[in-house]
Fold this protein.
Amino acid sequence: MNKFIFASLILFSTLGVFGQIKKPIPPKPPIPYSKSLQSVVVTTKDWSAVQGKAQVFERKSTKAKWKAVGESFAVVVGKNGLAWGTGLNELPSDTGMILMKKEGDGKAPAGIFSLTETFGSSAKPDFVKLPFTRLEEFTECVDDVESFHYNKIVNRMKVGIFDWKSSEKMLAVGAEYDLGVFVAHNSNPVTKGAGSCIFLHIWKDAESGTSGCTAMQRENLETIMTRLEAAKNPVLIQLPENAYKEFQTKWKLPRL
């Protein structure tokens, strides 16, 4: 009888565990940049520069001209500069001479990317309009390239069986993640090793580069988050100055 009970418990536990396996819901197809009415433009001096500047732009319709909103402000990008990322735009045909972003390279992605959701260490601020995730003890962004949840923000206790060996414990990061915006780089489709967990967030200081994100003063991030609306399909446009000038007309980028 005891053997029967023990075997039953093992079977029940096994079924329960496998019943918890959850794969991430595939993200919705990205909305083309041509339909965006809001953009955060970040430019750096060159591909290796850590410091840059940002400017918010808006337009009333997809056929209207982009207009600057407010003043430009300072940002920092990856500690190793920029590299081409995977976003909404088609990459130039001559990118062979330029490094593509890879997991752990310390470079922020260059290109055009949707700004899809926000997060913070406290309750959702009244000024935030995009979807918001409050960071908890077990909130993690998965950077394990072999995980089903690669490049996703998940709660370890709610996602089912976790299949990753490495992740960013977001709440433990501290003040830099008090507020943030998820940048949909390498999100649809997700390519293994092309980079993960890219955010707009609060900087450590005006000199320190990030592991791949774009960071700024809290007040400037709050200004951005106040304006972003899902219905306006906000995007991050991030390029070195020379590349921005090169693709400004072709990609119909805001005029700086």
